[in-house]
Amino acid sequence: MDETEAFCQSVIRDVTGQESHGERPHQAGDYSFNNIGISSFFMLLSTMKDAHREELGYYAVGGCGANIAWHTEEDLIHIADREILEKDIKIYLAAVMGVANATIAPFNFRQTLLTFGTTLEQYQAAVGALFDFEPARQAIAELDASLETFGRYACKAAVHTVGDPTVRRVNQVIRRLARLLVPVSYTRGPAFFHDPAETTPALPDLSVALAAPSTAPNELGFLQTHLMRGQNRLVAALRDARHAVDGAMA
Q1: What would the pLDDT profile of 210-243 be if each residue is shown by its tens digit?
Q2: SS3 at position 47
Q3: b/e per residue 6-21 (b: at least 16 CB within 10 A)
């Protein structure tokens, strides 16, 4: 997820010396906690390059390093590469230790908001004058300003021990941000349900904006209503997040 990417990149760099980049997590069993709002990372790690897979004549699969033994009776230990497994284990272990031992949870939700803004630009371009995402853009800007100040506050708190009240307060806010922002970014369903294992677009409640150019005139009102409800959900989450951040620094 956006808020965890910089941390994950630093772990991979420390363990392997390699640079890396993230991509939006896919909706699958590996990501089972989006609806309750948990910042997550590492759905897949080492996998063969697409060019090598095509060279071998393999079809695309979702695991096993792209080996087509995935989820078959051949998915056994002889498929595994010891060095690759060892590398992945080191990355997983370093990441878990890094999060568990961090005084302040190493997640940056300003990066999440940056993606929110980019997504809204795409949806606004698709929907044109039919709908205005300005309330959501304003709420993003307000939360981002609060998070900028909160970042400095957290840096000062980081010199204390984990049990320090200020450190606890900062980490509580970071958890609260995840509980609020992960669901609006990745889910359509309520907290105690699990969305289907299908591709979920960014800010899914607003993604119907992309259908605006092909929507029949007599159905545009329904689309506007859907967008209004989706924007209300997003703005409410952003405002609750800002109140949590500002309240922690009061």
Answers
A1: 999 999 999 999 999 999 999 999 999 999 999 9
A2: coil
A3: ebbeebbeebeeeeee
Distances (CA, A) of 159 to 10, 53, 104, 156, 246: 21, 48, 10, 6, 21
Token pair in block for residue 70: 């995935």
User: Which tokens in the block code for residue 57?
Assistant: 């004549």
In angstroms, how far is CA 132 from the centroid of its own chain? 25
The pair of three-digit structure tokens given for residue 73, joined into one six-digit string: 């009776």
| Cα–Cα distance, 231 to 222 (Å, whole number) | 14
Residue 38: half-sphere exposure toward Cβ, Cα within 13 Å:
8
- What is the spatial distance between Cα 131 and Cα 207, in angstroms, rounded to a whole number? 13
Amino acid at residue number 14: D
Crossing angle of helices 109-127 and 2-16, in 10° steps, is: 130
Task: Name the token pair of 47.
Answer: 């996998």
Q: Which amino acid is at 94?
A: A
- Give the separation between CA 213 and CA 128, rounded to whole angstroms: 9
- Which residues are within 8 A (CB) of 227 and not within 5 positions of it... i.e. 6 or more apart? 127, 131, 206, 208, 209
The residue behind tokens 């967008």 is 227
Residue of 193, 191, 188 whose CA lies nearest to 208: 188
Express each pLDDT in 92-118 by its tens digit. Answer: 999 999 999 999 999 999 999 999 999
Name the nearest CA neighbour of 15 among 112, 123, 79, 93: 93
Note the pTM of the prediction, 2 decimals: 0.92
